[in-house]
Design goal:
CATH superfamily of the largest domain: von Willebrand factor, type A domain
Shape: flat
CATH class of the largest domain: Alpha Beta
Strand content: 15-25%
Helix content: 25-40%
Strand order of the largest sheet: 8-7-6-9-12-13
Distance between the termini: 66 Å
Order of helices and strands: HHHEEHEEHEEHEEHEEEHEHEH
Structural class: alpha/beta
CATH topology of the largest domain: Rossmann fold
Largest sheet: 6 strands, mixed
Length: 365
């Protein structure tokens, strides 16, 4: 029977409600099932059967009803199809952000501000005397009028240059980032799920930028045989396909996107297993999955050099441990003068976030 259940209040008990616990698990499962609600609910049912996640007072049927009522699921009355809503998509991104940030050590880094004062968004509490060349918008009129009254009296108001005070603002750097995600078949080979951590990082990074750094831009590029852009709302639905790895197409698209961005700070993040196996020559695909093909790798290195000339640093997050692949990524990184992290899947998010945040603290001249 549905209703309210009252129990003794314990201020030290920080446990969540049954709905919130199930919601956290449901959000995680949606990431693994690429947004397939039916499959996620089937998995949740199996987990409930094994671990008794629900009880007689609140079952999975109640949970599904609450998901619909609270706007997490939308059911088509004609077809009976159940889909997740934009509220759920944002919830998945928020949980990914919390999950990754929860693993990071607390530091004082992570702000966009530089040591240089300038025309920014955040106003400093301190003021300073007016100097020649300061703009009208920087004058703190409250402090300046107060100075004029103190210096010249209030009977006959008078203000001169010595009365003026300037309130500075902190200069904030803006960054345009392209996150490239490898969705080739190798991202799920050998019994290792590499695409799910990559999706979690993409969702968390997008949530961080849209909420904390709204003036930054983030574009998501996925690459298999070809490369194409996806919207932030589409990230939970990404799936690995029967593709080869056309790193070249991904880099070319990322470079084209960043050429159109007006921000002075631009960068490319690339999550891959590090093995380019495909490129397009005319209308046909040139493919070779057996080792590293020199024709393909040379083109990748040429693009890395072009990015260096365009001042587009590439940070590669390598999630494979093969020595010959790591050697190629090292050469690729040296050609671009970028950075490479040979990350394990459980540390991928921490690597990307630390690098992204540290990049915000660089001074732009």
């Amino acid at each position: 029977m549905k209703g309210f259940h009252f129990s003794h209040f314990d201020p030290n008990d920080q446990s969540k409600s049954t709905f919130d616990k199930l919601l956290d698990l449901f959000m995680q499962l949606l990431t693994y099932t690429s947004g397939d609600v039916s499959e996620a609910l089937n998995w949740l049912t199996q987990l409930d059967k094994k671990y008794q996640l629900t009880n007689e007072e609140y079952g999975l049927g109640d949970f599904i009803d609450d998901l619909k009522e609270k706007g997490y699921l939308d059911e088509n009355n004609q077809t009976g199809e159940i889909r997740i809503t934009p509220k759920t998509e944002q919830g998945i991104r928020k949980r990914s952000l919390e999950e990754i940030f929860g693993k990071l050590k607390k530091t004082k880094s992570g702000e966009h501000s530089t040591f240089k004062p300038g025309l920014g968004d955040d106003i400093n509490p301190e003021t300073r005397p007016f100097q020649f060349g300061d703009m009208l918008e920087q004058i703190d009129f409250v402090s300046s009028i107060r100075n004029a009254q103190i210096n010249h009296g209030i009977e006959a108001f008078s203000m001169n240059e010595d009365d003026l005070e300037i309130r500075e603002t902190d200069f904030k750097t803006q960054t345009s980032t392209v996150l490239m995600i490898d969705i080739s078949h190798s991202m799920i080979l050998y019994g290792e799920d590499r695409i799910t951590p990559a999706k979690k990082v993409a969702m968390a990074l997008s949530e961080l930028i849209t909420t904390k750094y709204p003036k930054d831009t983030l574009d998501i590029v996925v690459f298999g045989n070809d490369a194409w852009m996806v919207e932030i709302k589409d990230i939970p639905y990404l799936q690995v396909g029967p593709y080869h790895t056309n790193t070249i197409a991904g880099l070319e698209l990322a470079m084209d996107i960043l050429r159109r961005r007006k921000n002075p700070n631009k960068q490319i993040f690339m999550i891959t297993d590090g093995k380019p196996t495909c490129m397009k020559v005319g209308k046909r695909y040139y493919k070779n999955s057996f080792g590293l093909d020199r024709k393909i790798t040379n083109r990748c290195l040429n693009l890395a050099a072009q990015c260096k000339k365009l001042k587009l640093p590439i940070t590669t997050f390598m999630i494979a441990s093969d020595p010959y692949l790591q050697r190629f990524v090292t050469e690729f990184t040296e050609t671009n003068n970028g950075k490479a992290f040979f990350a394990t899947l459980d540390k991928l998010g921490a690597f990307i976030f630390k690098d992204f945040e540290s990049g915000k603290r660089k001074t732009v001249y």
